[in-house]
Amino acid sequence: MPDTPPPVILGNEPGSFPHSVLAERHPAIVRQVREAFPYGPEQHRALDALLASCAEGVIEPLSADAPDRARWKTWGMDQYSGRSWFDVPWLWSESYFYRRLLDAVGYFDPGPWQGIDPFRPFKLAELDSRETDEELAALDDLTDRPEDEQAAALLHGSLWGNRADLGFRLSDADAEGRAAAPGLVADDSDTLRSLLTGEGTLCLIADNAGRELIPDLLLIAHLLAHGRVERAVLHIKPYPYYVSDATTADVVDALRRLTATPGQAGAYGRALWTAMTDGRLTVRAHPFSCAPLPYRRMPDDLRAELGGSALTLLKGDLNYRRLVGDMMWSPTTPFALATAYFPGRVAALRTLKSDVITGLDADMEATLVAAEGQRWRTGGTHALIQARG
Ligand SMILES: O=P(O)(O)OC[C@@]1(O)O[C@H](CO)[C@@H](O)[C@@H]1O
């Protein structure tokens, strides 16, 4: 970390991307969830209250009987209660919004709605889409290519799968139609490959379900099958989060989708199923995966686990923000400097959907700014692969 850390991103600047997420994306998510289920009057009242709170209210603490109240206290709930959603760190207020949304629909309460994922209809629609069929069918064309070409294609599949983020598309309806920029803004794929030595465990910190999780699983299947890693641990979320973030149920849905597909996709699916049953692939839902905090503040058990792995690979925009810290870094700050605190080797695959960025070279930054002003940061058309050994 530099002597003077860069400013932490807040949501209180009208016209900024974080402000639009709090003021527009969150209310849109509440409305979509409300329409997707026949919730009763109690949930409708709670959703109305959440909408009002998002618009002009302040952060309220979790109820006294919330199962995770103590945890949220250690994560800053008392410090931020009573303050505007817009004035606290944006990472914190976004994360807390999803926790409150689950409260409103009774996700944690004993009763009929307990454990019902309010985002499941959107996730399933994506898994059943024609695009998913096409992406899986395309795997058959890869099988007779050399192994390193297959690995590179699957790595890029996993990277660009990160465009499939339902929360993002909800507030930016044109996002999917915009073409992805051809080159990467930073490309450490050679370093990343060199870190996959065949020994030890890969920890893949997953992001979205559906069309991102499927290529993540395919990448893991390939790395296991070709001895590039001995084992893999897939870190998913313990509860629904940021609309499409993957939970255990989503992993099962994705695996079932794969095993039901003919050809190479089905073969990968069956190999993954076997790897889960014999312990080479495990799924982990650590509470910190839904924490409103940067990884710098990860608890000791997670630090030891990630530090003991051969490589931690973080997927997506939010994990990137948490990895380097949700701050306005100078874009040319070295990725290795911003992640120096992280235990062990680390890599990130991310499409750019928020202001945070490190590790660009000065020419690349100048080219992006000349072409797009600052839109390249948030438009979801650019991507990066960064790694530190
Ligand atoms: O982590 P992901 O799925 O790649 O992206 C998450 C995201 O859509 O949500 C946040 C804003 O709400 C940003 O980090 C980003 O735009």
Helices, strands, pairings?
Elements lengths: L16 H20 L4 H16 L12 H6 L2 H4 L9 H15 L15 H8 L2 H8 L9 H14 L5 H6 L14 E2 L1 H7 L5 E5 L7 H13 L5 E5 L12 H12 L3 H16 L2 E4 L15 H8 L3 E5 H9 L10 H4 L7 E6 L10 H11 L10 E6 L1
Helix pairs in contact: 1-2, 1-5, 2-5, 8-11, 11-13, 12-13
The structure holds 1-O-phosphono-beta-D-fructofuranose (F1X).
GO molecular function, one term: metal ion binding
InterPro entries: ARMT-1-like_metal-bd_sf, ARMT1, ARMT1-like_metal-bd
Catalytic activity: beta-D-fructose 1-phosphate + H2O = D-fructose + phosphate; beta-D-fructose 6-phosphate = dihydroxyacetone + D-glyceraldehyde 3-phosphate
Please describe what this structure looks like.
The structure is a single chain. The protein has 389 residues and is of the alpha/beta class. The chain has helices at 17-36, 41-56, 69-74, 77-80, 90-104, 120-127, 130-137, 147-160, 166-171, 189-195, 213-225, 248-259, 263-278, 300-307, 316-324, 335-338, 362-372; strands at residues 186-187, 201-205, 231-235, 281-284, 311-315, 346-351, 383-388. It has 2 domains: 17-104, no CATH class; 122-388, Uncharacterised protein PF01937, DUF89, domain 3 (Rossmann fold), CATH 3.40.50. A 7-stranded mixed β-sheet has the order 1-7-6-5-2-3-4, sandwiched between helices. Strand 2, helix 11 (213-225) and strand 3 form a beta-alpha-beta unit. Helix 1 runs parallel beside helix 5 (90-104), helix 8 (147-160) runs antiparallel to helix 11 and helix 11 (213-225) packs across helix 13. 1-O-phosphono-beta-D-fructofuranose binds next to helix 1, helix 9 and helix 15. It catalyses: beta-D-fructose 1-phosphate + H2O = D-fructose + phosphate; beta-D-fructose 6-phosphate = dihydroxyacetone + D-glyceraldehyde 3-phosphate. One of its GO terms (molecular function) is metal ion binding. Belongs to the damage-control phosphatase family. Sugar phosphate phosphatase III subfamily.
